[in-house]
Please model this.
Amino acid sequence: MNAEVRSLPFDPEALGKKYQEERDKRLRADGNEQYQEVSGEFAYFVEDPYIDSKIERGPVTDEVEVVIIGGGFGGMLAAARLHDAGITDFLLLEKGGDFGGTWYWNRYPGASCDIEAYVYFPLLEKTGFVPKQKYTNAPETLEYCHVIADTYDLYSRSLMQTMVTSTDWDEATGRWTVTTDRQDSIKARYVVHSNGPLNRPKLPAMKGINDFKGHTFHTSRWDYGYTGGDSNGGLDKLHDKRVAIIGTGATAVQCVPHLGAAAKQLYVFQRTPSSVDVRNNTSTDPDWIATQEPGWQDERRRNFELLITGAPVEKDLVADGWTEAFREIFGAVRDKAPSKGRLALWALTAPLSPELYSLGFKKYLTKKATTHMDLAREIELCDYQKMEKVRARAEAIVEDKDTAEALKPYYRQFCKRPCFHDEYLPTFNLPNVSLVNTDGKGLDLITETGIVFDGKEYPVDCIIFATGFEVGTDYSRRAGYQINGVDGLSVSQKWSEGLSTLHGMHSRGFPNSFFFGPAQSGFTATYTYSLDEQSQHLAHILSVAKEQGASRIEASEAAEAAWVQTIIEKARLTADFQNKCTPGYYNNEGKVNTKPQNNTYGGGPIEFFELMKKWRAKGDLDGLELR
Model:
């Protein structure tokens, strides 16, 4: 049946127009420049509030085989996979006081993972750890980071409370010199940059932040000394405080219920509402994991990633809000595609692109088959239906009609990372909680006593910034240190016109340097899955190099150029979808493909992982120059 003539409980043309109107309200010429870097007079926003006492030690001048920068899941997985491969001479450097990465910093009340723990926690079969719930919280995640560190004896091979200030290549010795704020000067044959994509907090670049006389902090540096309580809530020191929180993304969705339950008055300042669906957390069945066959976790996380990239699977092993959304969106169209075309569903990535989906089918279509435009339209209509349910949920839960309407997201589901929470929306029914909807505009300024929007001042005692992390800014700015390669070429200079890598991991001019992250590689909703794949890839490369007696590894000019071209070609497929999305870090704040080679691999994570698996199977490290 033609998608345009079937009966629908909504007007798709009106919805499409509404989506574009809401997007256009939020477009800004300054893009990422709308945010303030947390340096200089704003540096106090990144101070570590979780350190009980400073580690006293002298400078380290050791030489090691591998330096790993970052003690989050990426750094720990790199260490674990290297250890398993017999490469044990490594040193981890971490600016925080312990392992955990984003989970070390993000201890705000209610902090939890939106991906089920059985998929998100890597190495479960290795450690034997059993998560208490389907969706774990921040305390248990930190606990698990300690379990991994203990399992692989990482504490004895790490330096905590140590911030890298630069890494410099010496061609004569074939070594990197890694310097730190503790006056360390460490020589390393290889350096792994695992800084994390969401590592450096950002603030809105608005007038008056430092004029405010009350208390301020960023959610990733939560001040429990001021609020009381802990990650589980109980913010008892806020009972006489007027609190403002700026931002309504995933972090705010999780901490707003605790703030609303504790504060005398809570103002939630919103520019763009999140999509908030049912969470429905459950406890882990104690007998369930015990019955799993070896290899169950790899199968489960692959099953999850296949489902949310649109691929057909025999069974949904995870069965949660993520996979339900994709089942609803694709279930109606998958059977309409030619049988061979169904294999092309890899083309869907997060964020979702109907254009990419349809083009994946294009070469299989015949005159008798549904046109690719019909398929794209069918997916769009299914997406509309799913988001209508999300909006209906807000309307059913939130009692005030204006507030309910303001909390409805008008964009495609995967334009922004979806949220799953059962307490966020009901919080707006509390008499002490007020939503200040800026309708996409943002705030005017901050005064000595409060926040001004649309000419009205909201007097508050505390301002909490739930404004996220830097994503599209210069790599060295996000990392906090410069990388200087061959002939003094800095990574900022090399990438000034856009990222240029081989497989996202290597960049010519920076030999023996390995970059972890989603850029120009496979981006997954389960980010630890991608990090684990990169860690295994790293271990393979260093093992082969060792077998061949090589000590210098660098991407060839031709291979890097070819990969960048592949990234550009793949990225073009998603451009139309991204351009229609509301601004956010998924689409570079609305400036889509300004530097197209900055995109992730457009063929989807599973295709990328398979491509890397075949590359490793060849055994010749194709595209890398070894000597």
Notes: The longest strand covers residues 185-193. DSSP finds 20 helices and 22 strands in the chain.
